[in-house]
Design goal:
single chain, 322 residues, alpha+beta, Phosphorylase Kinase, domain 1, Aminoglycoside 3'-phosphotransferase, Chain: A, domain 2, 2 domains, five-stranded antiparallel beta sheet, 13 helices, 13% strand, transferase activity
Length: 322
């Protein structure tokens, strides 16, 4: 009983609604902004809260500043964001301050996202998406030589060589409605690993609400070092969902992304790799959900709780690029 009582009085590493956690976070925000010469001028507000992350808004003498905290399994985002700010400052949202150990980061306000600024004209929206995907592919090629540095920062290693073991571990702890053919999955991974495309940073939640105009990318809490083409899974699913793209339009978005890699292989080979990357990338997506919910800071809704099982069941099904 004594041990339980002591444990119950300890502040968890992440508990977004614990007054002690909130006080510690707000103290760090204020101290960090004081050091930057932009002191807080009003109340710090909670803006977006999820079981795996929380975002607060702080008014300062230099304008709005944003604070984000992740659960411990996703805390690598803070260190990754700091590194990206050094490696590719014109393509990412550069942080003002980070606490890598606690997974906290501060950024300046960058205005509306790309989604919020897109025109109603369909062709203009498709053009903006094509440019976004090309810009992300360019960023991935820039970051490919940093793959080892990123895994050293704690970014999950989801390269094709690792994924069969990741799949086996997930299946051991996740009830899946349909049978998963592990042998076929391993063959897909081996083919993908041999295609000559280098591993890089795979956002795993790439869409127009995670990028600012000018194609500056942010929100890396799901990111992994992986086959780069896996980013097309969520990107093209999002395009389908948010503005009901036709198969021909999806193919055009896919090819706009793949053109950046066209010096490495013929386009048909790249398209084959894109299909494989989306199939096998569903395991990486399932693993991202497991990380996000492993030590959730809030109660987890049913659709979140079953997300990993959903992606595992989807492995053999058609992808947006097939």
């Amino acid at each position: 009983m004594m041990a339980y009582g002591l444990k119950s009085r300890c502040m968890r590493a992440n508990d977004w609604h614990d007054p002690r956690w909130r006080a510690a976070a707000h103290s760090w925000i204020r101290e960090s902004l004081d050091r930057l010469g932009a002191p807080v001028t009003g109340e710090i507000e909670e803006v977006r809260v999820r079981p795996w992350s929380v975002t607060h808004k702080a008014p300062t003498t230099a304008g709005v500043r944003w604070f984000k905290a992740n659960t411990m399994d996703c805390a690598y985002e803070a260190g990754l964001v700091a590194a990206l700010g050094e490696w590719a400052p014109h393509s990412v949202l550069t942080p003002l301050a980070v606490d890598e150990k606690r997974g906290w980061l501060l950024t300046a306000d960058s205005g509306p996202t790309l989604r919020e600024t897109l025109p109603d004209d369909r062709e203009a929206r498709l053009l903006a998406w094509r440019e976004m995907l090309r810009a992300y592919a360019v960023l991935q090629r820039t970051l490919a030589p940093k793959a080892h540095d990123m895994t050293a920062l704690g970014v999950p290693d989801m390269r094709p060589e690792t994924l069969p073991e990741v799949l086996r571990a997930l299946l051991a702890e996740t009830a899946v409605d349909s049978e998963v053919d592990v042998t076929t999955y391993g063959k897909w991974c081996a083919e993908l690993a041999a295609d000559g495309v280098p591993a890089s940073l795979q956002h795993d939640d790439l869409h127009d609400a995670n990028v600012f105009p000018g194609n500056r990318f942010f929100d890396w809490g799901d990111a992994a070092v992986a086959h780069p083409f896996g980013c097309l899974l969520v990107a093209l699913q999002s395009a389908q969902y948010f503005f009901t793209t036709t198969p021909e339009e999806l193919a055009g978005l896919r090819d706009a992304y793949l053109e950046v890699w066209s010096d490495l292989a013929p386009m048909e080979s790249l398209r084959r790799s894109a299909v494989l990357a989306c199939h096998v990338g569903r395991v990486a997506k399932a693993a991202a959900w497991r990380r996000a919910l492993r030590d959730a800071a809030l109660p987890v809704a049913e659709d979140f709780r079953t997300a990993a099982a959903y992606y595992l069941a989807e492995i053999p099904k058609p992808t947006p690029v097939s």
